[in-house]
């Protein structure tokens, strides 16, 4: 186990990472393929988790993925991700994706999601990570809400493990 230190949320955050949509990003419905957006979020959330923990991290779960509006050809996607809270070895990272019309500057909120990553030691065992210190009012709100979501995740996990034991 590493020493339990702390790091500010801003130290690992990714702010409006730019991805220009090209024709090969589209689905049959001619909107941007959602799986590509999810994969990019997972990859960027990993960077946030590894910056914060300074360890190799894996995705443990993803919850509340909401596609709020479609992204279209020629949009520019803006990915923002930051650590909401850390506990023992796990961290919740919030993701927000916006689509920008780069000619007009107009933006639309495309996706929100929460990723849980777990930091691993050299033996692939979960290892403690630094505490996350929220700075802004927004970061403090996300920090509080993350605890509520964690309670739900742990409850569901326990119920599923119990159900698997019975079968
Ligand atoms: C994630 C993983 C390392 C957890 O291992 P484990 O032996 O279950 O570990 P533990 O029960 O000790 O839990 C470790 C932490 O993970 C959290 N966790 C485990 N499963 C979780 C889940 N489904 N959702 C959210 N958190 C989870 C626990 O709450 C705990 O957090 P804490 O240390 O902050 O309290 C393991 O399940 C794993 O390797 N999964 C596969 C990961 C993977 O391949 N991802 C895709 C490629 S990156």
Walk me through this protein's architecture.
With 167 residues, the protein is an alpha+beta fold. The chain has one domain: Thiol Ester Dehydrase, Chain A (Roll). The chain has helices at residues 34-53, 137-166; strands spanning 6-8, 14-20, 56-67, 76-86, 90-100, 107-120, 131-133. It is globular and about 50 Å long. Coenzyme A (COA) is lined by residues 58-61, 87-90, 116, 118, 126, 153-154, 157.
Number of DSSP helical runs: 2
Give the beta-strand count: 7
The strands making up the biggest β-sheet line up spatially as 2-4-5-6-3
Approximately what portion of the residues adopt beta-strand conformation?
A: 35-45%
Chain-averaged pLDDT: 96
- CATH architecture assignment: Roll
Q: In sequence order, what are the helices and strands, one letter per element?
A: EEHEEEEEH
Q: From the 3D structure, determine the CATH topology.
A: Thiol Ester Dehydrase, Chain A
CA-based gyration radius: 17 Å
Which overall shape is indicated by the principal axes computed on the Cα atoms? globular
The CATH homologous superfamily name equals Hotdog Thioesterase
- Category by helix and strand content: alpha+beta
Helix content class? 25-40%
In this structure, how is the largest beta sheet organized? 5 strands, antiparallel
- How many domain units? 1
> Runs with pLDDT <50, length 5+?
none
Kindly, what is the distance between the CA atoms of the first and last residues, rounded to a whole number of angstroms? 35 Å
Which small-molecule species are bound to the chains here?
Answer: coenzyme A
CATH C-level category:
Alpha Beta
Domain HotDog ACOT-type: 11-123
Organism: Marinobacter salinexigens
InterPro entries: Cytosol_ACT (IPR040170), HOTDOG_ACOT (IPR033120), HotDog_dom_sf (IPR029069), Thioestr_dom (IPR006683)
Pfam families: 4HBT (PF03061)
């Amino acid at each position: 186990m590493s020493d339990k230190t702390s790091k500010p949320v801003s130290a690992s955050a990714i702010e409006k990472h730019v991805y220009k949509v090209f024709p090969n990003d589209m689905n049959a419905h001619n909107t941007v393929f959602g799986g590509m957006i999810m994969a990019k979020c997972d990859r960027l959330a990993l960077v946030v988790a590894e910056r914060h923990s300074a360890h190799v991290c894996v995705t443990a779960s993803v919850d509340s993925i909401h596609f709020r509006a479609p992204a279209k050809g020629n949009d520019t996607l803006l990915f923002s991700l930051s650590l909401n809270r850390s506990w023992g070895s796990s961290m919740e990272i919030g993701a927000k994706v916006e689509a920008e019309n780069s000619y007009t500057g107009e933006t639309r909120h495309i996706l929100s999601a929460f990723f849980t990553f777990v930091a691993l030691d050299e033996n692939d065992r979960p290892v403690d990570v630094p505490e996350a210190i929220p700075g802004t009012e927004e970061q403090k709100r996300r920090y509080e809400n993350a605890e509520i979501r964690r309670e739900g995740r742990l409850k569901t996990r326990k119920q599923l493990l119990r159900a698997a034991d019975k079968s």
